[in-house]
UniProtKB/TrEMBL annotation:
Residues 5-35 form the Flagellar basal body rod protein N-terminal domain. Belongs to the flagella basal body rod proteins family. InterPro entries: Flag_bb_rod_N, Flagellar_FlgE/F/G, Flg_bb/hook_C_dom, FlgE/F/G-like, LlgE_F_G-like_D1. This is Flagellar basal-body rod protein FlgF. It comes from Pseudomonas cuatrocienegasensis.
Amino acid sequence: MDKMLYVSMTGAHNNTLAQRAHANNLANISTSGFRRDFEQARSMPIFGDGFPARVYAMSERPGTDFTPGAMQETGRDLDVAIGGEGWVAVQAPDGGEAYVRTASLNVDALGVLRTGNGLPVIGNAGPIAVPPEQKIEIGQDGTISIRALGEAPNVLAEVDRIKLVNPDLKQMEKGTDGLIRFKGAEPLLADATVQVTSGFLEASNVNAVEEMTAILSLSRQFELQVKMMRTAEDNSSAMARVLQMS
């Protein structure tokens, strides 16, 4: 009976992990540029002294859905999104490079260009620093131009260029911090063919109906696993009574 109980317990535990993955997707349905995580379950045979007749359930995250989200117009000059394929390079908290598809940019008190969640945007030679300005414009190729304080409206100066990359998606992975990174050891090279669109943000690619349906299905599976555990307990109690009678 303990084997039946353990099989049910592992199934219920992994149902909970799977629900957590879908709940995280659903919670980020309004997060710009969010990429939903896939989730799957598989059977793992148990090998031991006897024949591997039993299998335990295992839930895992096989990958990330890199399908682009819908473009949402904001009208804000510092809101940028990739038009087509490609990524914007940013500096991760650990100092390495990470990549985003869209960002609501701003300039901090030190003049560093950052994403909405505070990550520095990488340019030709590291994080981009913007001098004091009246206006910032971002071109399709990622070029950042400013109108300096006191300059005429028609005078623009180029200060840097956002690093845009276009790697093979098979070499990209999503970390536990939600950032997308390249699997290779070296940072990616800039790709001049990638273009950004100013005044737009890319929405999350999460489908609320699919995620809710998956959560409900996993909830029913969890209930079945709990019923099996109760059945195992009842069988164990019945067997104990039989032994007491004998």
